[in-house]
């Protein structure tokens, strides 16, 4: 049976984190116990759903005891891996992880061959049907974490709304906008809050998993969305450095990049999530 603990963004303090996860630990051993089940932290959609498919359809045959814990923010899953409260996580891309490790002194690393999928970032609006219809001075909400904000600004730049300074890369902020012909105003919000902001702004750039949770499809509802080809933002399985070769981790990485999972992603998400392997 799936053992799931949902931790909200309010549970971010170290003490609260330990309490929240300790209270829902498996009776088979601690989350960091290499002889126990493989405990994996994930955001609910689509990562939790993909893991759930693996757990119910592939894990038993492969001899993998998999336990899933769901989190609704982008901070706690890495903190939990670092502290040993969970053994692995599946929710993030490399630019985000690099920035997180740099800022927090953590050493969480991608599992080799563990990149699973891409969630195209999209621009959504309840006010306009096309990006070109945004009026002068329109407000656009963007994620407030470093890499996803840069990613959002790049998407706007790629579609001609703004121009960024050369060389800003994965750390662009609104201060790095070199040209802004529509005088757009940027509202920086936590990624999870962006779907709820749509009624208050003219447009919002929303991460794929939060769009799906809000029943928005990057393939159908986004005014524009990221292209999959050559995209550095694929989501992968990650562990604390040194745990990459744990047999359970290697087994899960293989299952997550199996033909069965590729078909599951294609059938369930219809382009809103795409396999990256």
Topology diagram in text:
Layout: H1 14-22, E1 38-42, H2 44-57, H3 59-62, E2 66-70, H4 76-83, E3 88-92, H5 94-104, E4 108-118, E5 122-124, E6 139-143, H6 146-158, E7 163-164, E8 177-179, E9 185-189, E10 203-206, H7 208-213, E11 224-225, E12 235-240, H8 247-256, H9 259-269, E13 274-275
Parallel strand pairs: 1-2, 1-3, 6-9, 6-10
Antiparallel strand pairs: 3-12, 4-12, 4-13, 5-10, 5-11, 7-8
Structure description:
There is one protein chain. This protein is α/β, with parallel strands linked by helices and 277 residues long. It is 31% helix and 21% strand. The chain is built from 9 helices and 13 strands. The strands form 3 sheets. A 6-stranded mixed beta sheet has the order 2-1-3-12-4-13, with helices on both faces. The protein has a 5-stranded mixed beta sheet with strand order 9-6-10-5-11. The radius of gyration is 19 Å and the shape is globular. Residues 1-23 form the signal peptide. It is found in: Membrane. It is a lipid-anchor.
Secondary structure class reads: alpha/beta
User: Mind summarizing the main beta sheet?
Assistant: 6 strands, mixed
Give the terminus-to-terminus CA distance: 28 Å
The total count of helices amounts to 9
Low-confidence stretches: 1-29
Order of secondary-structure elements: HEHHEHEHEEEHEEEEHEEHHE
What is the gyration radius calculated from CA atoms? 19 Å
Strand arrangement in the largest pleated sheet: 2-1-3-12-4-13
Shape: globular
Q: Which band does the percent of strand residues land in?
A: 15-25%
Portion of residues within helices = 25-40%
- Average of the residue pLDDT scores: 88
**DSSP E strands, number:** 13
């Amino acid at each position: 049976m799936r053992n799931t603990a949902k931790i909200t963004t309010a549970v971010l303090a170290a003490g609260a984190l330990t309490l929240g996860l300790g209270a829902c630990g498996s009776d088979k051993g601690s989350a960091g116990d290499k002889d126990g089940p493989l405990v994996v932290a994930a955001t609910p959609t689509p990562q939790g759903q993909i893991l759930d498919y693996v757990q119910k359809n592939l894990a038993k045959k492969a001899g993998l005891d998999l336990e899933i814990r769901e989190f609704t923010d982008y901070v706690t899953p890495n903190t939990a891996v670092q502290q040993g409260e969970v053994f692995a996580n599946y929710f993030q891309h490399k630019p985000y992880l690099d920035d997180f490790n740099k800022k927090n002194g953590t050493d969480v690393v991608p599992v080799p061959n563990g990149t699973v999928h891409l969630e195209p970032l999209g621009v959504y609006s309840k006010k306009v049907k096309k990006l070109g219809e945004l009026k002068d001075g329109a407000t656009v909400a963007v994620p407030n974490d470093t890499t996803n904000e840069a990613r959002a600004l790049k998407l706007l730049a790629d579609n001609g709304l703004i121009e960024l300074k050369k060389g800003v890369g994965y750390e662009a902020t609104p201060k790095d906008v070199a040209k802004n012909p529509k005088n757009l105003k940027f509202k920086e919000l936590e990624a999870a809050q962006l779907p709820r902001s749509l009624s208050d702004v003219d447009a919002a750039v929303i991460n794929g998993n939060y769009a799906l949770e809000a029943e928005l499809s990057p393939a159908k509802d986004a005014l524009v969305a990221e292209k999959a080809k050559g995209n550095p933002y694929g989501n992968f399985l990650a562990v604390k450095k040194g745990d990459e070769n744990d047999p359970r981790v290697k087994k899960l990485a293989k299952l997550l990049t199996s033909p069965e999972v590729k078909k599951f992603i294609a059938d369930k998400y219809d382009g809103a999530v795409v396999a990256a392997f």
